Amino acid sequence: MMYPPTICHAIMNSKSNSYHFRFENFNDERNIMEHIKTEWDKVHKTTVFRYKVSGLKEKYIAHYFIQLNPDRKLKRRIPEDINEICQKFDDSKFNFTRVPKTEIILNFWEEPEQLHTIIGNVSPINRYHSLICPSVNKKLPQIVTEDSLRVVLEVYYLAKHCDLRIGFNSLCALASVNHLHYHLFVITQTLPVETVRRLRE
User: Fold this and answer.
1) To 10 degrees, the CA torsion angle through 23, 184, 79, 139?
2) What angle do CA 14, 200, 154 make, to 5 degrees?
3) 143 and 86 Cβ atoms separated by less than 8 Å
4) A Gene Ontology molecular-function term (predicted)?
5) Residues 51 and 129: beta-carbon distance below 8 Å
6) Which residues contact 109 (CB under 8 A, 6 or more apart)?
7) Based on the structure, what is the number of domains in the chain?
8) Any domain includes 58
9) Which candidate, 98, 89, 86, places its Cα nearest to that of 179?
10) Is residue 200 part of a domain?
11) 3-state DSSP assignment of residue 70
């Protein structure tokens, strides 16, 4: 797969360990994934999440991994009213600057003062389901930006975890909050998109 030059540059910087993040109450970048897991489990044991994800029914159908998680439908936050793919951020509605400290797994900064946050998804799909919110203090809408993608790639490389998956869902494609965020999953199964054949243009 060919990446744009800007993405290649971000990956190359990550491989050279030229990180410029400042972490809050955490000083061991080599164990960032273990930190995320530990903090997520702590939150899961409290009443912060809207439901628990232990004991979910799961099975394979053909090449697809199927999970039954009815609480995700019944107990999740009511999605924001989304009408456009490129909808402006609305500060009067729920956004990730409003989450309580109990949901925050990790805060980290980079210069200039730019706050990135990893929070536990209170309506999780599976264990360790979290949200990476790049530049959360800038209150950006749910539209991929070059800078946010760089942050996500650097976090991905820092994690060094073979089961880590990071995804993005846009407005009008099931995103429920119009505030820039990516989904962080730990999944042991191979996803169909990882093995699909790419047709040459």
Assistant:
1) 30
2) 10
3) yes
4) guanyl-nucleotide exchange factor activity
5) no
6) 21, 22, 24, 115, 116
7) 1
8) yes
9) 89
10) no
11) helix
